[in-house]
Amino acid sequence: MNLNAKAKAAAAEIREGAPDAFADLIDASRRPVQTSDMGGPLQERRSISEQVANRIIAMIKSGNLKAGDRLPTEQQMGVAFGISRPPLREALKALTLMGMLESRQGGRYMVTDLSPSRLVAPFNAMLSMGDYDVQEHFEARGAVELTLVRLATLRATNEERQRILKHAVDGKKFSTDPVAFRLLDIEFHRALSDAARNRLLSAVAQGLYDIGLDVRREASQVPANIEKSVGQHIEVAEAVMAGDAEAAVAAYRRHLEHIRDTTIEVISKHND
Fold this sequence. Notes:
- By secondary structure, the protein is mostly helical.
- It has two domains: 3-114, Winged helix-like DNA-binding domain superfamily/Winged helix DNA-binding domain (Arc Repressor Mutant, subunit A), CATH 1.10.10; 131-271, Four Helix Bundle (Hemerythrin (Met), subunit A) (Up-down Bundle).
- 69% of the residues lie in helices and 2% in strands.
- It has a two-stranded antiparallel sheet.
- Strand 1 and strand 2 (109-111) form a beta hairpin.
- The chain is elongated.
């Protein structure tokens, strides 16, 4: 039986006992296309397992797969994607570690709850895939976080404004303690996100914040970098306290540029 015939047989089985959405993926897999989403060969930019993981993620994000949906068997999915079991299992394992799938008894996988934090989990794997681009990363951070800062300035309660300012000013105590400063930095950024009252933007911002932490940890070992970040935190906080959204956004933009530049310095040092 050739691959096309196997795919048709598998599609028939899946339509009987699996989500209809996955049947669409089965049909798509029968097309004579083995290209990546970048237009090149399947393995030109990403491995087969990464391609498969991205296809399943796309189905989850689009709503074709929903929480509680049970995926077909490994054999059926292998036929659907036209791949062997090892790369398929690697993809399923990665999605399980991300929290998007759960392994159930009998070797079947089920889609978990689709909270925003789970949907941004793939961002955190970017570095391991070798796709990290500093400019791209901070362009994305700017698009999301500048909006959050604007919303926080407009929506924050008096108590939230005080909390943001306190976290900013407390940073002065930790200019020589990088670990303590990093903990406080997380709380400062979280306070801004909380005050913005947009859970989706906050979830995306957290995912973007978590990218490149190893590099930023190294950058924070330089006392001058901490001192500058603290000063910028205070500028942002004071603008939020005053309810001046334009000033808050401008100050936060300078802060992101500082983080970007110090990140580039660390990467350049390792590349020399």
